[in-house]
Structure formats: C-alpha cells, structure tokens
Amino acid sequence: xxxxxxxxxxxxxxxxxxxxxxxxxxxxxxxxxxxxxxxxxxxxxxxxxxxxxxxxxxxxxxxxxxxxxxxx
Length: 72
Description:
It is elongated and about 45 Å long. The protein has helices spanning 12-28, 33-36, 39-71. It starts with 11 loop residues before the first helix and ends with a helix. Helices cover 75% and strands 0% of the residues. Helix 1 (12-28) runs antiparallel to helix 3 (39-71). It is an all-alpha fold. The chain has three helices and no strands.
C-alpha cells in the first residue's frame, strides 16, 4: 500500500478484471449453440467494459490529483 500506481495497468483491480475477462471469453465458448450468440455476446461485452471503464476513469483522477496539488 506504500506505492502509487503510475498507470491504470499497475492497478490490481485492472489486472484482475483483465484476467476475469479472459476467463469469461473462454466460458462463453462452452455455452450451448442457442445461447452462444445472444448470451455469450452480452457476457463478452459486459466483461470488456470493466477494464475499459477503469482505464477511462484513470485520466480524470490523475488530472484532478495534479490540479489539487498545484493549487494548494
């Protein structure tokens, strides 16, 4: 807990979400054919959104921290 992350890629939560995304993609391949296109597609899109949201949220948080430090 002593180090600050230099990038969103350094965050444990980002790395875990990426690993889980890969697991979900593998699981989606095992679904029955009637579920493969609708449910599997939805699962894949939802799993990709988690690491994407973490990376998108990183920049404003870093910018706010920088502005806070400069202004004080």
